[in-house]
Structure to design on (679 residues):
């Protein structure tokens, strides 16, 4: 098997807040092969954005390794690191904040081309910017050259953000809630455009979203990773995760989502949680962090032992004692399991 | 009037909006945020106003309680509020009349209001303050009522009443607001984006709370949302707002299952569902129109796959297209099924 393009091995990240330690990401491991897509899904505070920032090299893990093509990015030499930074591009959530309001669209898109010497001259730059704008379906490109971000709609701005990420021919795009800020009617065309990019350019996508429905559509042929309070609780192929969720948290999320279909949404089976309140990241419960809310909770097991992500079936990795036992697997080591 | 929820029921109208138009002056001209809107709100029903940002749905909501920004101008229209056989036009109310109307008759919870509590007041005092502003000075009575309401929204009164707003999570604050809105037992509650920016499981608890307090207190609910799934979940009737106009209104099942306005049809096809098969999603081409100079004829015509010459010239009126379902489209007869891609 070839080396994964991105690999996280036991990555954790803590932040200090008023002398207290916040564990934003706790021992997360996963790998992505070239051309694959993975969606990181979870509620606010689950660590998905922090994970995205570590993948793109904007944050240094407190422990563990982030590898690009097999190499720890924080042990790379200057030249290797530069190459990695160009290869992995981040698209931010807010298209209103991520484009410089004082620069024209042409300047925004041509600056990286010129800086990284990807074009020979002005004419070449213009030609390349046009091409990029056509890729993100903004037409006619020349009409937008002299416009400023405020003259564009939210959807158009997000397309420009995508075009900017593409200027340096990245191999990996980390898209953090890239379609969340735009209206429903625009969202689908943006998603379709990103899907097309993924197929046509073979770009590897790490797609971060709180919306499982969006994740389902974007990553139907890939995988979804569900995160809860800094840990990855389930990482499965999308159809399996949606149709047959193994972790009780995944199951609770899927059952709680309101659907845009009155008959479907009013007859959906709902899973009752033991508590509606999310524990504070400053004071995480022992054992499985979901045990305070979990309907499958077992005393002496779930509140004592931290379940590790374990492959229960091919392509289905789950961190849950009860789900593992159903598959005849114990997540508790011999010594502690008397 | 009758609405169809399986059987015909005689229903009273508690609010009737008649030909309402609201404008905002801007440098380039007048922004026509609400254009000749008419609809009725029936007793005990939940009406969802859905539409994209900038469609005018919030302006419409704000005008119902006359909380529009100072620059706004109500060009024409009437907002008739009915109770106990009496009728008054909200637009003609005096300052005092308006004060009595707001919160006692009609409570409105704004978008993002969970972040608009007075940060230095405990939740208990937020309740007492609200009551005092409406002439109720018996603190013990207010406290007792607040405790009861907090229990109804699944919060622990002992903990919550003594808390400051920042000590509560977003979902808890939203539920406190729902309780606060019900304090004076209004006949109408208006909620603007009640679940936006809340996490999925929190959203679910707010939805369940809304459902149970509606069952119990029988108020009429108007909620404004860009989230179609919330409408599917909670509404009895749905009104689609586009470019300041109601372009379709009807029973929630009809709106989702047999929309007759191409915009409603477009909207319902753009939202992915989690359960069920992977169906093809179709996006609506183009972007929302300029409200200073809305397109001639039907404002949706530049984005509409069905647009004909007539649509580019004449504005279609709301026309009855089914049982209690109205759509403003010249070609509604052709819009009978989902248009394939």
């Amino acid at each position: 098997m070839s080396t994964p393009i991105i690999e996280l091995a036991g990555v954790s990240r803590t932040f200090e807040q008023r002398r207290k330690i916040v564990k934003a990401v706790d021992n997360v491991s996963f790998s992505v092969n070239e051309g694959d897509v993975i969606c990181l899904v979870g509620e606010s505070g689950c660590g998905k954005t922090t994970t995205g920032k570590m993948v793109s090299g904007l944050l240094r893990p407190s422990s563990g390794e982030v590898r690009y093509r097999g190499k720890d990015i924080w042990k790379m030499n200057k030249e290797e690191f530069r190459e990695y930074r160009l290869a992995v591009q981040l698209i931010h959530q807010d298209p209103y904040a991520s484009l410089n309001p004082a620069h024209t669209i042409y300047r925004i898109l041509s600056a990286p081309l010129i800086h990284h010497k990807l074009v020979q001259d002005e004419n070449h730059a213009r030609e390349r910017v046009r091409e990029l704008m056509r890729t993100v379906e903004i037409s006619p490109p020349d009409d937008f050259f002299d416009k400023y971000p405020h003259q564009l709609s939210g959807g158009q701005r997000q397309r420009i953000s995508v075009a900017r990420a593409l200027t340096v021919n990245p191999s990996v795009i980390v898209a953090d809630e890239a379609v969340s800020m735009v209206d429903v009617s625009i969202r689908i065309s943006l998603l379709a455009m990103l899907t097309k990019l993924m197929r046509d350019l073979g770009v590897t996508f790490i797609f971060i979203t709180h919306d499982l429905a969006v994740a389902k559509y974007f990553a139907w042929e890939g995988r979804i990773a569900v995160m809860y309070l800094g840990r990855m609780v389930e990482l499965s192929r999308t159809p399996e995760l949606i149709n047959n969720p193994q972790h009780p948290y995944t199951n609770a999320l899927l059952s709680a989502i309101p659907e845009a279909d009155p008959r479907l949404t009013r007859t959906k089976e709902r899973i009752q949680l033991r508590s509606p309140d999310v524990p504070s990241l400053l004071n995480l419960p022992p054992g499985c962090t979901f045990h305070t809310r979990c309907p499958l909770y077992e005393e002496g097991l779930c509140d004592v032992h931290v379940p590790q992500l374990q492959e229960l079936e091919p392509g289905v990795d789950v961190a849950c004692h009860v789900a593992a036992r159903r598959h005849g697997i114990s997540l508790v080591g011999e010594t502690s399991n008397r | 009037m009758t609405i169809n929820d399986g059987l015909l029921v005689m229903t009273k109208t508690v609010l009737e909006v008649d030909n309402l138009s609201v404008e905002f002056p801007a440098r380039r001209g007048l922004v026509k945020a609400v254009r000749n809107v008419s609809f009725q709100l029936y007793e005990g029903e939940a009406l969802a106003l859905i539409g994209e940002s900038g469609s005018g749905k919030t302006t419409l909501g704000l005008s119902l309680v006359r909380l529009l920004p100072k620059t706004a101008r109500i060009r024409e229209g009437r907002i008739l509020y009915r109770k106990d056989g009496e009728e008054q036009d909200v637009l003609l109310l005096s300052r005092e009349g308006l004060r009595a109307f707001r919160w006692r008759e009609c409570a409105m919870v704004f978008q993002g209001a969970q972040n608009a509590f007075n940060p230095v007041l405990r939740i208990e005092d937020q309740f007492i303050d609200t009551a005092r502003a409406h002439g109720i000075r018996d603190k013990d009575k207010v406290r007792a009522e607040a405790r009861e309401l907090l229990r109804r929204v699944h919060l622990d009164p002992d903990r919550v009443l003594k808390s400051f707003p920042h000590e509560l999570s977003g979902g808890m604050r939203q539920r406190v607001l729902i309780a606060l809105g019900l304090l004076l037992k209004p006949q109408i509650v208006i909620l603007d984006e009640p679940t936006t920016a809340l996490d999925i499981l929190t959203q679910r608890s707010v939805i369940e709370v809304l459902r149970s307090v509606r069952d119990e207190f029988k108020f009429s609910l108007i909620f404004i949302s860009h989230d179609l799934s919330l409408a599917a979940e909670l509404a009895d009737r749905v009104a689609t707002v586009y470019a300041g106009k109601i372009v379709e209104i009807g029973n929630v099942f009809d709106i989702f299952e047999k929309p007759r306005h191409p915009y409603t049809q477009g909207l319902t096809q753009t939202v992915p569902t989690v359960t069920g098969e992977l169906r093809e999603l179709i996006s609506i081409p183009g972007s929302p129109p300029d409200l200073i100079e809305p397109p001639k004829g039907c404002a949706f015509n530049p984005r509409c796959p069905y647009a004909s010459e007539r649509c580019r010239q004449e504005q279609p009126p709301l026309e009855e297209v089914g049982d209690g379902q109205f759509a403003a489209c010249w070609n509604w007869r052709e819009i009978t099924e989902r248009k394939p891609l």
User: Anything to note?
Assistant: Residues 259-326 of chain A form one domain. Residues 334-338 of chain A have pLDDT under 50 and may be disordered.
